[in-house]
UniProtKB/TrEMBL annotation:
This is Cation:dicarboxylase symporter family transporter. It is a multi-pass membrane protein. One of its GO terms (cellular component) is plasma membrane. SUPFAM superfamilies: Proton glutamate symport protein. The lineage of its organism: Bacteria, Pseudomonadati, Acidobacteriota, Terriglobia, Terriglobales. It is found in: Cell membrane. Its main location: membrane. It comes from Tunturiibacter psychrotolerans. It comes from the Bacteria. InterPro entries: Na-dicarboxylate_symporter (IPR001991), Na-dicarboxylate_symporter_CS (IPR018107), Na:dicarbo_symporter_sf (IPR036458). The chain crosses the membrane at residues 35-52, 59-82, 88-113, 125-146, 193-211, 232-250, 270-289, 351-370, 390-407.
Length: 463
């Protein structure tokens, strides 16, 4: 009891110091600035003391985010030079993703032996994905039409030096062809998660079709590989606070906090739509399928915080898979649903595309009828499938859509100024949505909490 009270005091003290420190930082004057820095640093110390008393990486990731934001605000030159540490973390994570998905999917399909359940699970996953994605588009469309965030925006005469080349239009035939790998080594090297998952499904089906004598040695190899990759994840996650802190420092140091003033209405619209999606879609879905909401929120906290700080869904994938398995989702379901969701269930990115595309039309003074907006949403639903889980990749889809509907690109370059802040929120919703999808499918299949949890996974979650 005393320990809990002391932790609450530390958190309350940190919150008060941080709030006062931020308030003083907004007041002009050298004395106020220095006082604000001291108070904010004091808040970080209290947060670090709180993290020391918890046996988890999640508090340290949060401390790193706050410390990184402070460093980016007060020492932007130093902060931007720290990007190398976030890049190191992302590179380590990317080495995990493809082998982890390959090993866990093959093990889940071939080890289970029931190929009918795999097909049933796939159909249920796709149904859930498309229903949720459609609702995400509707919410994003409603939010931007209510806020009119793009109306009255004065476009600058010259845009920033950042350039994004508009890709050729992607037809459904090209997307369908891109789903299937032509070279598994190439797919792994390029980080094509969906292609690796498709290969793993076919490989697992073929392996399951062999007699037990021939299947067992290969199955044991992939089981061992999956355990090794989870252990690899546990080791890499010790570097997560440094990588996350560096990512946050770079973002704030490069852009500054004042960027919220310029396009705050668009950000508020997006954040409001994302919150509305969580309350109106994700929460009811969790309640309908009787998901243990409190346990789920506790489990998803760490991968969500990684996604928020790095703006990269891929960085959170290994820990998300571990967290959901520890929550009670069987590994074969985790290995199938979450990777598939990275191509078919990007809820946050879908909302962002709806908001940003109509924002571009409003800023350009182009009136789109409801029918044209719905056609644009259908186009976005198709072109957003398979988008890479990396920062700002969704802008490529936005440019392609603008080209299709003959909208100017200038407003898109304006959006680039706040894209990092938008990316943090939409990536977090992507990760949370995919984690919930795995729990929903497990509940739908009646297999939630039916399998023992790997010791390696438990080790990583409790560290």
């Amino acid at each position: 009891m005393l320990k809990t009270n002391f932790q609450h005091i530390l958190l309350l003290s940190a919150a008060i110091l941080l709030s006062v420190g931020i308030s003083l930082g907004l007041i002009h004057g050298p004395g106020m600035h220095h006082a604000g820095v001291i108070l904010r640093c004091g808040a970080i110390v209290f947060l670090a003391l709180f993290a020391l008393r918890r046996r988890s990486l999640t508090p340290w990731i949060f401390v790193a985010m706050v410390a990184g934001a402070e460093l980016g605000f007060d020492a932007p030159v130093l902060a931007t030079s720290l990007r190398v540490f976030s890049d190191i973390f992302l590179r380590l994570i990317k080495t995990i993703v493809a082998p982890l998905i390959l090993a866990t999917l093959v093990t889940g399909i071939a080890g289970h032996g029931d190929l009918k359940s795999v097909g049933r699970m796939g159909i249920k996953s796709l149904i859930y994905f498309e229903v949720v994605t459609t609702l995400a588009l509707v919410i994003g469309l409603a939010a931007i039409n209510l806020s009119h965030a793009g109306v009255g925006l004065t476009l600058p005469a010259t845009t920033s030096g950042e350039t994004v080349s508009a890709p050729p239009r992607t037809h459904w035939q090209e997307f369908l062809l891109h789903v299937f790998p032509e070279n598994i080594a190439k797919s792994i090297a390029e980080g094509q998660i969906l292609q690796v998952a498709v290969f793993a499904v076919f490989f697992g089906i073929a392996l399951a079709s062999l007699d037990e004598k021939k299947r067992t040695p290969v199955l044991h190899l992939f089981e061992s590989l999956s355990e090794v990759m989870f252990k690899f994840t546990n080791v890499v996650m010790y570097f997560a606070p440094i990588g996350v802190g560096a990512a946050m420092a770079f973002t704030v140091g490069q852009m500054g906090l004042g960027v919220l003033v310029n396009l705050g209405k668009l950000l508020l619209t997006l954040y409001g739509a994302l919150v509305g999606f969580g309350l109106l879609v994700l929460l009811p879905a969790a309640l309908i399928f009787r998901v243990p909401v409190r346990r789920f929120l506790a489990a998803v906290g760490e991968p969500a915080s990684i996604a928020f700080a790095t703006s990269t869904s891929e960085a959170a994938l290994p820990r998300a898979m571990e967290s959901m398995e520890a929550l009670g989702v069987p590994r074969r379901i985790v290995a199938f649903v979450i990777p598939a969701g990275y191509s078919f269930n990007l809820d946050g990115s879908t909302i962002y595309l709806a908001v940003a595309s109509i924002f571009v039309a409003q800023a350009a003074g182009v009136h789109l009828s409801l029918g044209q907006q719905l056609l644009m949403m259908v186009t976005l639903m198709l072109t957003s499938k398979g988008v890479a889980g990396v920062p700002r990749a969704i802008l490529v889809v936005l440019l392609a859509t603008a080209s299709t509907f003959h909208l100017p690109t200038e407003p898109i370059f304006v959006i680039l100024g706040i894209d990092a802040l938008a990316d943090m929120a939409r990536t977090t919703v992507n990760v949370v949505g995919n984690c919930l999808a795995s729990v929903v499918v497990a509940k739908w299949e009646g297999e939630f909490g039916t399998e023992p949890i790997s010791e390696v996974v438990l080790e990583g979650i409790t560290e």
